Amino acid sequence: MTVTQTTPEQRRGSVGRPFAGRSLNEIGLIAAIVVLYIALGSTAAGFLSLDNQLGMLRDAAMVGIAAWGVTLVIIAGEIDISIGPAVAFSSVLVAKAAAEWGIGIGPAVLLTLVAGAAWGALAGWLRARFDVPSFIATLGVWSALGGLGLYLTDALPVVLPESGLFDVLGGTVLGIPTPAVVMVVLFFAFAYLARYTGYGRSVYAIGGNAPAARMAGINLARVRVLLFATTGLLSAITGVLLAARLGSGNGGAASGLEFDVIAAVVIGGTALAGGRGSMLGTLLGVVFITVIGNGLVLLGVDSFLQNVVRGVIIVVAVLVNVVITKRARATRET
Amino acid sequence: MAADVASGTTVIVVDGVTKHYPGVPALTDAHLTIRQGEVRALLGRNGAGKSTLIRVLSGVERADSGSVTVGGAELADGGVRRAAELGIRTVHQELSLVAELTVAENLYLGQWPRRGTAIDYAAMRAGAASVFQRLGLDIDPSATVGSLSLANRQLVEICRAVREQPQLLILDEPTSALAAAEVDIVLDTVTRIASQGVAVLYVSHRLEEIRRIAHSATVMRDGRIVDTVDVGEADTGRIVSLMLGEAATAAARPPERHVDRTGVPLLSVRGLAVPPKVLDVSFDLHAGEILGLGGLMGSGRTEVLRAIAGFTHAAGTIAVEGHTIQRPSAPAMKRLGVGMTPEDRKDEGVVPLLGVDENLVLSKFDTVSSGPTVLPGKVRRAAQQLIKRLSIATASARTPIVNLSGGNQQKAVIGRWLHAGSRILLLDEPTRGVDVQAKAEIYRLVRELADGGAAIVFVSGELEELPLVCDRVLALREGKVAGELTGRELTTDSVLSAAMAA
Questions:
Q1: What is the pLDDT of residues A158-183, one digit of tens each?
Q2: In whole angstroms, what is the distance from residue B409 CA to residue B144 CA?
Q3: Taking a C-beta distance cutoff of 8 angstroms, is the pair B43, B238 a contact?
């Protein structure tokens, strides 16, 4: 085989270069979002209002914060389906700790974040040490935390005590919803992590070819434990923010969130097979999903029917993405 | 050597076939005829156009111009289906069997015989058994493919093509993954297939195989067919010079290197055992020395390297610079300067989606980072230095590594350990599946690294290359050192006899 000439432009989109990434998929997503904005702006009353836009930012944070971590998990060739119940349980845990255990607000938040990292690390350890498929390990977390959240609360909301910290977390910073600020800060942190740290590059290497990464001396077990500890932590952060916003912890909250997160990541161009993906793509996927969800509500679509429409749109988006990627690769290879 | 086939009827005529990829003339004005019962070798370095020719013949690619006719019928633009109709069958280098299914099911993959709506397993087994019987093979049609040896899997792959009674059978390096002892049965089978009237186009890098089974050899270079020679008459030097295009000298044993073996050895292995494959291996390796490990498939070569690199637990002791390593884990051995390149470049060596640069620095991020931050500039500089030092042919440092030839990928995998500053390099089959010229470059590179003070263990199943590279060779047999060869005693013959003889 001779050396094939490949320009830097051609390869950027395929491998995570969050800032330089201008792949077809990302351009396509931006175009789709623009089209959605124009369509919804002209048909859905109040879509372009400041209130609605800020509300969308708040909604985006629910999906986005966890999605940054799940992007890395999927790039590494793994999956984490525990997000929804993990978020719900975190909201219960922080509320219980703050309202009933008398340990103070700050420690209650800290406890929740540590617990999140811990159950994530447990799932990662099961994957790394015993080769339990990550789907199953996180399914266990999904089921256990979902059940625990409801059991501890009898499925009733646990009201948060009054606190300045919760007011800030549930409120705004300079007019921007706090969760959105957290999401954006974490986005840059994760884009940096993915592109500019040995850990991030190891994640791509493991997803691209795990045996080769192992032969190169990368500690697979360590990376895998960290990956799931990270998503656990991000779920806990989302749960705390959710509790602060609602003023209570709720064992039944965030139902189905895990699938929004995975959909956002995959729409963003991250390959479920691993090795390929970018934070920028996921960001666009999060925006895409959020705008559609918001638009369907504003258009007054029946809430059961919303799920149908969302399902169709998500599959079509991924389908287009796959077709584009295939075509781009085919032109590159001939 | 096979009987006279000059009288056989012509099976396939390739007339003036040209195929250009954007910017690259992959195949130019190719002419070729093969007769019934003939085994035609197809030779050429990687990139010479062999793969393109095969792709055109099997209908995967359309020729830009020219024609391919089989028994008078033209392939035209019919694609894969038309090629199959005409009786062209190709066995690719990578096996395409389903390991969980039985041999018979694989033989009939996708075309399972049916009785009514149910699959007729009895007919399938009988059909498979008759193919094996015709070719004199002893393979159980009911065994799962996963339980077979590599050689038998290759035979099943070939038999699948044979079952469909091809006119032309194209075999793309069917023996490249096999050890010498296993090659024989594949070669015998090919000879038998040809004797039953099938035309065979046989691609291989191994000249000695071609001498055994082929009647004639077509040599390609730079997308053109340069000559078709009678294998019996052309000597190796002539064939090699046709392949390389310039007056290439047959590889001679390079001058002996002086190795100072007086000090403390850099690596010392005593009584290494990884049952059942490795039972008792001991050796000392000094800085600047190249030690070959030779042996047949299953002699435990790879297992020895993996144990030293800390990937598998082993009995016995391993010492680096005289210090015994208590628990030789992979991270510990890496810190001590041990780097191993795997025999399976594709599965364990490269990360295909990443660029050459990132593949090179994968072993160590510290030296290209500031604090926790990996600096792209440093990565690029480090990569470019290694690319230059190892003469890796790549369009740029960021080119995805899969776009490189096998030899250049191999250099990058070795370069990864130079980046990590490793002093003890364990190279497992570093020349597997690379062309003649790339092999020579890898030999030279290995010797340069040793001249620079690295201690190298060079593992190869192609025993004839060990004398070309190594200062000293240990022949392994059934997990033990069966012989040590140096100086004048070190020849292909001596290594082979030590590896085989009781």
A1: 999 999 999 999 999 999 999 999 99
A2: 33
A3: no
Q: Which of A5, A212, A219 lies nearest to residue B395, judging by beta carbons?
A: A5
Of A1, A196, A204, the CB nearest to B354: A204
ipTM of model: 0.72
Query: Which chain B residues have a beta carbon less than 8 Å from that of A334?
Result: 21-22
pLDDT higher than threshold 50 for residue B249: no
> Which residue, among B27, B222, B302, B353, would best test binding to A if mutated, counting the most A CBs under 10 Å from its CB?
B353
Distances (CA, A) of B414 to A244, B338, B340, B442, B467: 54, 12, 8, 10, 21
| CB–CB contact B362 A8 (8 Å) | no
A334 close to B22: Cβ distance less than 8 angstroms: yes
Peptide bond into A107 cis (omega under 30): no
The model's confidence at residue A1, banded by pLDDT at 50, 70 and 90, is: very low
| DSSP characters over A37-78 | HHHHHHHSTTTTSHHHHHHHHHHHHHHHHHHHHHHHHHHTT-
pLDDT, averaged across chain B: 88
pLDDT computed for residue B297 by the predictor:
63
Chain centroid offset of residue A262 CA? 7
Determine, for residues B362 and A2 on separate chains, whether the beta-carbon distance falls below 8 Å: no
CB-based contact, A3 to chain B, within 8 Å? yes
CA distance B47 to B208: 21
Distance (Å, rounded) from C-alpha B267 to C-alpha A208?
33
Percent over 90 (pLDDT), chain B? 54
Q: Find residues 218-247 of chain A whose CB sits inside 8 Å of chain B.
A: 218-219
pLDDT of residue B133: 94
Q: Which DSSP state fits B257?
A: P
pLDDT band at A330 (very low <50, low <70, confident <90, very high): low
Confidence of residue B502 (pLDDT cuts 50, 70, 90): very low
Q: Which two tokens stand for residue B250?
A: 């047959």
Residues of B in contact with A219 (CB under 8 A): 331
Over residues B463-476, the pLDDT tens digits come to 778 988 999 999 98
Q: Which residues contact A28 (CB under 8 A, 6 or more apart)?
A: A320, A321, A324
> What pLDDT is stored for residue A286 in this prediction?
97
The residue that leads in pLDDT, B224 or A21, is: B224
**What digits encode the pLDDT tens for the residues B327-343?**
899 999 999 999 999 98
Q: Which of B335, B351, B417 to mutate to test the interface with A (most CBs of A within 10 A)?
A: B351
Residues in chain B with CB shorter than 8 Å from the CB of A217 are 330-331, 334, 339, 363-364, 420
Mean pLDDT of A274-280: 91
Q: How buried is B435 (Cβ within 10 angstroms: 0-12 exposed, 13-18 middle, 19+ buried)?
A: buried
d(C-alpha B144, C-alpha B104), whole Å: 9
Residue B104, min C-alpha distance to chain A (Å)? 31
Selection from A189, A226, A325 nearest residue A270 by Cα? A325
Instruction: Read off the tokens for B186.
Output: 């594949």
Residue in B with minimal Cα distance to A205 = B351
| Six-digit token string for B115 | 């009785």
B449 and B168 in contact (C-beta within 8 Å)?
no
The DSSP element (H or E) to which B41 belongs, if any, is strand B39-43
The residues near A140 (Cβ < 8 Å, ≥ 6 apart) are A123, A126
Tokens of A233: 């932590």
pTM of the model: 0.73
C-alpha span between A43 and A38 (Å, rounded):
9
Residue B356 has pLDDT above 60, yes or no: yes
**C-alpha–C-alpha distance, residues A307 and A292, integer Å:** 11
Q: At what angle do helices A105-130 and A134-153 cross, to 10 degrees?
A: 150
